[in-house]
Batch of 4 targets.
Target 1
Amino acid sequence: MRLTTVGTAGLAAVVAAVSAQQRPQFDSGLDIVEVYVTVRWQDGAAVGDLDRGDFEVRVDGKPREIAVFSRETRPVSAAMILDSSGSIGGGDRARIRQAAQVFVGYLQAEDRMSVHSLYWDRQPLTGDRVALVNALQPMPSSGRL
């Protein structure tokens, strides 16, 4: 009978090699990209009677299968970050604020949003539409968004 002394590193390598041989190898991949869509009529009303066949998804111009389709309404959480720096003129600032208010108007009851500028946080994540619109008003001290 012959005994061989193996150092700690050697023993770890042997254990790892034996363990690797005993474990089955499994590789898998799944590429599903979730796309949430709201379709509205010209008057702003949501179109609610669409089904899978009314949509087409293309990647690099090639049609892709729609693996899962649901009409379920899902709440949205969004962060709006607005540029109120000196590079934005007063007229542009007003148009940005107006567009942001329109966006807030499209939020559903379950949706939440936060409002930030490049310099400070204006409104943490909330579902309170009044608080969101108030956060979009110019700050009294600077006149900036």
Note: Residues 82 and 96 are 8 Å apart (CA to CA).
Target 2
Amino acid sequence: MSVRTALLPTLVLGPREAGAAWDVLQASANLALEDAQQLRLRELLVAIDHWAQLGEAPMMALLPLGNGADLLVKAAWGSAISPTALPMAHAMLLPPGMARASLLGTRLLPLLPAPDGSRQFGRQPIPVPPVLPDAPLRPGWPDIGLAWRNRVVIVPEAADVVPALATVLATSGPPEQAGRITGWATTAMLPAVGDFDPWEACQLLVLGPGRPQPYGHPYLPARFNILGEPEPVVPPPAAWRAWTAFRDAAGAQAMLPWDMDMTVEPVPALLARLADHADDDRARRPALLTALLNGEGPQGFDLRATGLALLAGWLAQDGAAALPEAEFRALGSSRLIAALDSLDRPGEALAHLSDAHLLWLAEALVNHPLAAGHLGCAMVLRLIDVPGGAALVPQLVAQRLEGAGGLDLERLASRRVIEALGPGQAALALKVTRLGLRQPAATLAGLGTSLAALQLAGATAR
């Protein structure tokens, strides 16, 4: 793997004397830290000091230092160096992007020697060769789902730690979510100090034999089969599967980039937000609607509800006025009716429709199950003002009465509707009036409707 040539700052960390707090014992001249990074380094020193007091075996870690920089650390307790040596750590400061370019630092590990009790290491920066060797990988290991959950991998031999570490990092995916991985450690004994939280900073723990496990912390253990292979991938969260399904369905549409905050967003809200963003490109709106309305997405998500919601918003906005007749009808009357019926005020959307679109939908609404809903009422009131629409009014009114109730019925029981029914519909007019007068909110307007119905009945009788 090629990495641009760099001189990495080096540090030696440890207590200056027995019982003292950890400090920077030696640092190369090119070490330059921002104020926030200085504060994080002080927090890390306290955390490593706590680890050293536990007398655990040597450990390695990649710890985010802030503003994109990382600290690659190898630390050892005194007895692991020599019987009389104090605990110590060697560290390298990795500039922004270096850890990810070198597979989160695993290819840089050979450049970092284990602590030997001296301070020689921190006197000079370490040159990074133009080409880094690949880290040793475990052949045949599947992705254990590090991108979705913090994982702890417990290996049987100390020699397995680095290969397991490199393999898990190399197989984590997909790339949209792999960016959440920022650090790792070979110990579970680093405590939280100040703003440093190891459970947030280190998404992967690889523990050798005898290491204490992170009980009570949000790590999912990787279990192994008899061949020494880890369990299959952790299922991705629903939000990512929904985002992927929308991306695949939308094709060339403008897409909001994946963001880790989306994992906690309810799927319907996320899909609605994605649709609103993609809908900004009005020229491609029909293609997006068609793709979403075609049904189930590749990730198992039914995108039809999202398509209907987008279509409903479009109809409410301008009645699809910019859509040619052929493309409007290509969406299908059933989909358009379902979208209109999902609106709280379908009448406002119907008001935007052209007369041709309205009559076509009204014909489809006859004998449609939703004709008995509030959309049927709104359609009746709209048809009264459309040339040629009066012929459909009696059928829609009759079907609306089958499920009549509430304010919709009061709107139907109006003088305008009774007059639109016309001669020959006296029985239907009287039924509308009778049901309207039974409503708790019936007023003098209802009496006026009744009078109109009686006049219609009288005219029919003559």
Note: Residues 4 and 130 are 6 Å apart (CA to CA).
Target 3
Amino acid sequence: MGPWHLGRWYPPLAVVCVLGCLALLVLAVQPPNEIALWVLPATAVGLLALWFGYFRLYFRDEVNRALRKLARFRDCHDVTVTPLGGGLTNRNYRVELDGESYVLRIAGAGSEKLLIDRSREAMAVRSASAAGVAPDVIDYLPDYSVVVTRFVRGKPLTAKDVREGDILRRVAQVLRTYHSHPVSEGLGAFSPFDVVRYYYDQAREKNVALPEDLDRAMEMLERIEHAVLGDAPPCLCHNDLLLGNFIDAGNALLVIDWEYAGLGNRYFDLGNFAAHNQLSDAEERVLLEHYCGAAGPEDLRRLRLMRLVSDLRESTWGYLQSSISSLHNPQHYRDYGRRFLDRFLSAPATGDLAVLDSTPPD
């Protein structure tokens, strides 16, 4: 869900829209256009034939092929499969078998070009699961392009949730939990600065039409990187804290989709969450108070700088994806990149970049 959505009014409005479309179809075949009447049932029959004869089975075949490669599911036959919404990179399915529910994720084509390291992800999610903040990994392919986790019954967080109740406290507690948890030896590093530069260079190599003002943003990135240098040890970071990646299971708040995870800077997680949810200044302070115990000026400075880096990462990711992914059309990803670039470049108007010209405290 985006920042604006219909919430519980979606179902009745959908019914009204369908009835309205049916009324338009009735009007469309009235004299002198009655000759078009035969087109409607013919089209309906053709679409139903395509659905039941091919498309309905297509995603099931993909899931069955993937499951047969996994030792745990190889001999299973009576499997119920339901596509799950969301996901800009991968295809996700709910798999029900013997009274148990799982989530099967199949990596989209070209996802390895986005610096997604599947072995690093597997190590990270196991650490997060051991910390009690992520679903268990059930099985995966040796190349980590297919991952099965336990299905979590709950609901994704919404923008409304973040601004009501004690969600910011719970989010801060979850972040603190996995940031402090021991990680597997050999877990690779994740630098958002290196990722942004890589996405930018790859997009240029693929001749993606990049906007001229992206060059100015890349110059700002160098200043931000220098400004956030610190001596805090790296820790397990998720690095993609979209609201849809939080599942409120009632007694626990869990985090899913760890494909960008790695050893990194905790302030990028904090800034990433603040950026995706457009937290206000006051909400940023509340988040830090719950996370650190107090919202000190240096903590706030680093969070806001990393918030900018998060927007630039999303922007360059979008432009690169426009030349890679087949899940959406290229313009969808270019619009995505433009939206986050505009948000990054508009930050000086709100004073966010003013901290770059201040000297960090000793």
Note: The chain has two domains: 39-106, 153-357.
Target 4
Amino acid sequence: MERTSAHEPAIEFRNVDYALPSGQQLLAGLNLQVQRGETLVLLGRSGSGKTTTLKLINRLLTPTGGEVRVNGTSTTQSDVIRLRRSIGYVIQEVGLFPHFTVERNIGLVPRIEGWTVERIHLRVEELLQLVGLDPPMASRYPHQLSGGQRQRVGVARALAADPAILLMDEPFGALDALTRDQLQREFLSLQQRLNKTVVFVTHDLREALRLGSRIALMEAGRLVTVLSPEEFLRSRDPLAEAYVDALADGLDSANRGAS
């Protein structure tokens, strides 16, 4: 087993390609590092390669070229079950089991890992508090929850076994503006407390600027640039400028509509 260093990136893409069996190239020549404890946002339009990149990390997809390394080990050399259980995964549609209570949904991975019933119960209570849900929610089913509540449960489930890495694929994209704003605030608070390594997919520049330590801008399966939020706003890269201009135009329209 390879030993990891505190200075080694948590995740590294080394000249990674991904193509479909048809030959269609979804990702080409990706070189990218995700540092421990940072929130790296993958920003781009639909079809830019964001979700493909995310799925290569927990080996839902396998590179057709190059190498993805997690904690210093190639994903193709890792036990895929152990790899996935060590990484939290949150998606837009949440993916909760409808016939499981909230407690069973959150406790799924700990139960598979052999935790005791009491330990799982205590962990569920802790996580419900962490994501802003009341303890009685544990006995409810997903259909009894609002969209925002289901998303909170999805985050709690991803954190259940205390993974060091968290993957989030547009987790707040389907929510109304007020709920999305609230969950973004809660995410920032959680990240300050937990210091996870997070890879967060979005097409929304405002969300990227708010949540990201760095922003990796993607287009047509390629990495365009990686910048801090402050650098992104000052960037002279044409695509980055287009995103900033579109955000400014949207804010201007919103202000005019409110006046």
Note: DSSP finds ten helices and ten strands in the chain.
